[in-house]
Amino acid sequence: MKLNVALLAGGFSGESVISVQSASVIAKNIDNTKYNVFLVEINENKWFWQSENGSVEINRHDFSLPLESGKINFDVAFIMIHGTPGENGLLQSYFELLHIPHTTCSAMVSNVTFNKFYTLQLIRSFGVATSRSVYFNRQATANPDEVIKHLTFPVFVKPNSGGSSIGMSKVKTASELETAIKKAFCEDKEVLVEEFTSGDELTCGVIRHQGKLVAFPVTLIRSKKDFFDFEAKYTQGMSDEITPALVDQKLIDEVVATSLMLYEKLNCSGIVRFDYIHNGKEPVFLEVNTVPGMSSASIVPQQAKAAGISEPELYDMIIENAISRN
């Protein structure tokens, strides 16, 4: 019997466009002999499935789809929403209350890892290198002098919760700080400022499959812009993404070992991607992505392909991981 899969896309953030692109790729390539897939779009006004005859709203009391032919109950929620509410624990809490399996980390883990400042504190406690940083938890008290006092330029100014480098600025002088901080606060209520680390960016996807942790081949990223911003991430030709990474095997082993350790220590679920900068001595942790992209420009599908895993097989792994946890 086929499983009914709710493939969730959209969301309330600037990453909604990327979310819809990822979900469209999944809907096109998933094994339809195993799954009945319903692409459910979520925005701040409604949750709906778009049929040939128009949109049908989701019944949010039990997360079902009321059709004339009968009510559709979902076996699993495949969350492809970046940012809020799909990556910060809100949807996870909802599905956990309804006892519906979902494909991401738990509500608690999603909430903590979505907060870059909190995540950095945990990562440091595990003995992993991170960049020095300054955290502002409200705009009214954000003082650029704290950055000047504690950090060395250049720095990255970024929303504390969010992804795809939206609202991020690379700041080279103190005179640019105030504008960059205001820009970041336009995207979030909290802002993180981190020292720039020069080096190659490396990233590794990890999933638990059939009870065992699996690390995908590491990707080396070299942006053709000043840093790996939104344009470099999602515009073809704006970055070189090399999978498997053409770097020293010792470095590959260190990135893989660190990623596997962090997946366990953070109590992750589903497919998770860990990002680093190699400073010439060691991998420096950048961030954890608990809902990594699945679009044609995304890294995890590239890594799966390099590992000999097709896109349908990758989605199988993600869905099996969700169901096996319940």
Q: Can you walk me through this structure?
A:
It is a single chain. With 326 residues, the chain is of the alpha+beta class. The chain has three domains: 3-103, 3-Layer(aba) Sandwich (Rossmann fold); 111-129 and 197-324, ATP-grasp fold, B domain (D-amino Acid Aminotransferase, Chain A, domain 1), CATH 3.30.470.20; 133-195, 2-Layer Sandwich (Dna Ligase, domain 1), CATH 3.30.1490.20. It is 31% helix and 28% strand. The chain is built from ten helices and 17 strands. The chain is globular, with a radius of gyration of 20 Å. The chain starts with a strand and ends with a helix. 43% of the residues are buried.
Brief summary of the model shown:
With 326 residues, this protein is an alpha+beta fold. It has helices at 16-29, 90-98, 107-114, 116-125, 144-150, 177-185, 230-234, 249-265, 299-306, 311-324, and strands at residues 3-10, 35-42, 47-51, 54-57, 64-67, 70-73, 76-79, 133-136, 155-159, 169-171, 191-195, 200-209, 212-215, 219-223, 239-242, 272-278, 283-289.
